[in-house]
Write a structure and sequence with these properties.
Radius of gyration: 22 Å
Number of domains: 2
Number of helices: 3
Shape: globular
Number of strands: 26
Distance between the termini: 30 Å
CATH topology of the largest domain: Lipocalin
Structural class: mainly beta
CATH class of the largest domain: Mainly Beta
Strand content: over 45%
Length: 454
């Protein structure tokens, strides 16, 4: 499932590389900061907790663009508001390239240098996918100014089971002296009967025992609808020879199964969970993320203190099927995976002295491209009504016949599968929430999001 390195994996890798200073080039805190920099470029902020919700690989596959004429997201430029100058100042830039199947193939990250008025390269990431559209590896490089070239940092390889669930992640560090990749850690994933992720366990190699030793794990719980309720992360402490709780996330949903808030807790020295931060989200009438509010817990007064917010703008004229995007989790926002229409921009505000002060903005830039076989560029896939309650009608501008329909929930589970269904599908048995409709027409798969309501 992983299309990017999650915050958990960031910390995992940094811990895994402890003691490898003679081998790996990027070490410990510097290594972790590299990951945080990448997350920041992708739309996150290291001072706002943005939980990354991991389900299984099918979800990411379903969110990819299909063939045809697309609005291609080429870059994201972030700017910060300079109070003294009373104007926007360039901050950083991300640029994206895609393969012929619409998968992200290359991402470049730059920072703006005022002294020379140039974008300075910082990081480059390369991606590769299997025939099912699963990411099988990704390699990160850092730009080294004094030698004026890219140097390998780390590599992540992923393995999947027969139905596309991520079962193993392997992390490698680059060794300059020998010019080889050295395996540094692995992460193993376990699922329940409904293919919900139950456990992810990070392990590092112990030379003295010639064994993989667990050192970090996350456990997950779900409600009856497959919505994730909690994620508890624990770390192995050798000094006590036991697992120690570290963080806990709690997630909350509306009646349609759409996530609307989370709370982050840290394990305290008093052996209890202490609230740390909270996020609340709202959506526009089309279902796109519209607003994220962030709060910090103040123990002195025992209440939540407003800290910041993000506002998002979307172009409702374009749906996901008409866009070529990186993984949705790269977009700014806590709940970016719910995105339905074209992201346009976002703005970030800080709450200071009982007032909102704009702090940062990001703008997405697109160009029109043709992806895959142009023969299928004008199929005009439409679902009506959307949102739906009982039945949906599927149509194409050129009257193409639907060969197969699959409807997946956001946990990647296939809830409906019909062959030669005609152009109408009964969705009345689906629990309210967001789904992905995958239609096979003329041998090609096309996908759109569907919101089911009651």
């Amino acid at each position: 499932m992983k299309k990017i390195i999650t915050i958990l994996l960031c910390i995992t890798i940094s811990v895994a590389l402890v003691g490898q200073s003679s081998q790996g080039r990027i070490q410990n805190d510097e290594y972790l900061m590299n990951f945080k920099d990448i997350e920041y470029f992708r739309g996150g902020n290291t001072d706002e907790y943005l939980p990354i919700h991991q389900t299984n690989n099918q979800q990411s596959n379903l969110l990819k663009s299909s063939q045809g004429t697309k609005q291609c997201l080429d870059s994201l430029i972030r700017e910060s508001w300079n109070i003294d100058m009373n104007q926007w100042v360039a901050l950083n830039k991300s640029e994206y390239s895609y393969d012929d199947n619409g998968n992200i193939s290359l991402a470049h990250y730059y920072t703006w240098e005022d002294s020379c008025s140039l974008w300075i390269p910082i990081n480059r990431s390369e991606y590769s996918f299997n025939s099912s559209g699963d990411e099988i590896y990704y390699v990160s490089y850092s730009w080294i100014d004094n030698i004026n070239q890219w140097i390998a940092d780390y590599k992540i390889e992923s393995s999947y089971d027969t139905i596309g669930n991520l079962i193993l992640t392997s992390g490698f560090g680059w060794v300059d002296s020998t010019s080889i990749w050295v395996l540094s850690f692995i992460v193993e994933y376990t699922y329940d009967a409904n293919w919900n992720l139950l456990l992810s366990t990070a392990k590092r190699w112990n030379d003295s025992t010639s064994q993989w030793i667990p050192f970090d794990k996350s456990e997950y719980t779900y409600d009856n609808n497959g919505n994730r309720l909690t994620e508890i992360r624990t770390v192995w402490l050798e000094v006590i020879n036991d697992w120690m709780p570290f963080t806990k996330d709690e997630y909350f949903y509306n009646q349609y199964g759409i996530r609307i808030s989370y709370i982050l807790y840290f394990w305290s020295y008093s052996s209890q969970w202490k609230a740390s931060s909270k996020g609340e989200s709202s959506y526009d009438n089309n279902g796109n993320p519209e607003l994220d509010l962030f709060f910090q817990w103040d123990e002195n007064i025992s209440q939540w203190i407003t800290s910041s917010k993000r506002e998002f703008t979307h172009n409702l004229s374009y749906s996901l099927s008409q866009l070529l995007l990186p993984p949705l989790s790269w977009l700014s926002g806590v709940n970016s995976e719910y995105t339905i229409n074209m992201p346009v921009d976002f703005k970030r505000y800080l709450f200071v002295d009982n007032d909102w002060n704009i702090n940062e903005k990001g703008t997405y830039y697109y160009s029109e491209v043709i992806v895959g076989n142009p023969e299928y560029s004008n199929l005009g896939f439409n679902i009506f009504p959307n949102p739906a309650k009982q039945k949906i009608s599927i149509s194409f501008d050129e009257g193409s016949e639907v060969e197969e329909v699959s409807i997946y929930n956001l946990a990647g589970q296939r809830d409906i599968h019909e062959r030669e269904p005609g152009n109408e599908v009964d969705v009345s048995r689906l629990i309210p929430g967001m789904y992905i409709v995958e239609v096979t027409v003329e041998g090609r798969k096309i996908r759109q999001k569907l919101l089911v309501q009651r």
